[in-house]
Amino acid sequence: MASRIVSFEALQTLLLEYWNTEGFRPLQQEAVEALLEGKDVLLFLPTGGGKSLCFQLPPLCQPHAVTVVVSPLISLAKDQVDAALDRGIDCEVFNSTVSESKKAAIISELCSGILSTKLLYTTPESLALPQLKDALKEAHAACTLRFAIDEAHCISSWGHDFRPAYLSLSSLHTEFPGAPILACTATATKQVKTSIIELLHLKSPVVLESSFNRSNLRYEVRYKDLICDGSDAAAFQDLEAFVKSQAPGTCGIIYAHQRKTCDWLASSLCNVEVDAMAYHAGKDSGQRASIQSQWLEGDVDIVVATIAFGMGVDKADVRWIVHWDAPSSLEAFSQESGRAGRDGLPSLCIMYASKAHFEQMRKLERGERSGSAAGMADMALSACCRRKAVLEHFGEHRGRCNAAEEEACDFCQSPKQVAAAVARLEGAWEHKQAEAAQMEKDGHQLAAGSITDWDTCWES
Fold first, then answer.
1. Which domains does the chain have, with CATH numbers?
2. How would DSSP label each residue in 215-231?
3. Taking the CA of residue 362 as centre, how many other CA atoms within 13 Å lie in the half-sphere pointing to its CB?
4. Ranges of H-type helices in 144-231
5. H or E stretch at 182
6. pTM for this predicted structure
7. How many CB atoms lie within 10 A of CB 309?
8. Where is the Helicase C-terminal domain (predicted)?
């Protein structure tokens, strides 16, 4: 069914009614209008840029219209659904957590052609089920149907969160001819863009891309190798001092690669009277939901988590992000650090970097992702503007931090101090390598560390 174009005044009325605002953020209006005109849209906005409004608003403009939102995480969908329901938008969820009776009710409504539901959240796995797909085809014949692919970089092997189930979405245009697709993500490298368009078979998409600069974020790198004796225990003391320096009630996230590291950090923080909870796939779904809910509601200030936590979570007042382990790519770093300061207020992003850790990551890389760790290492282990390095990775060429307009990174605040730290780091690494070579020469076998227990916590 063809969409009608809605006046700007009508859009403003809906913005005020459902979002309590009269104005769009950058590129939101363009995305909404393109979808209402029946066009495919490829939308790149930084974390916190307001992607969800772009697919939530169009169905509100028309009777019997629904947007099917494909989300990679059940927890992500739950947070968006809860927020939409709070605004008064009719939403439903169709995934593995929903009872069979509820699924049957959703199927019945879709087949009726008379829809009150405006947003239907699902996963790629559930969307592939014949019962849901057949019902959506019935709805498509009688109503206005659109698809929104959230975290669309998951379909691309160049995206840091590649998920094979997303490949099933390549048939959407064939099975639902004329239904526009919005693909949105905060990961916008050239390879990801090309891959999304090709794999989703987007038809002459309207490509909308905002600057990925988050001017309110301050980036800082701390070198584990140079903190006291270079041990994790010494680095933890530094982390403890940082956390305790924050005002009581300040909200933060600590990211680590391994589940056991999350448990250790959370336990260690609690032992020094800092309230923190660990979140990872080793906990059951009920535990994870409870922890996330407590954090969102402010009952717990700090979550120590593996990398999937926080994807799409709309919590505006996260004042700091700590990467206990360096992320595997600049895309991951940008998305995870971007979960801080979504309210626009100054926020801090700290990374604890280790030369040895980067070497381990480099050795573990395979296939198309080879080189991602090198890009991350170049930013973290060099005396350079962190902001400039991150943005250049996404094709934005610019100068160093402008202290008059944005939070200055550690390098731009103290170039000589950072340069001296990098020089000491290189010296310490060369000395360590020389010692290792001598030990091997003497017939000793060094124990190799492992960081293979990375946790993506995908749910279907």
1. 8-209 (3.40.50.300), 217-441 (3.40.50.300)
2. TTEEEEEEEGGGSTTS-
3. 12
4. 172-175, 190-200
5. strand 181-185
6. 0.81
7. 26
8. 235-382
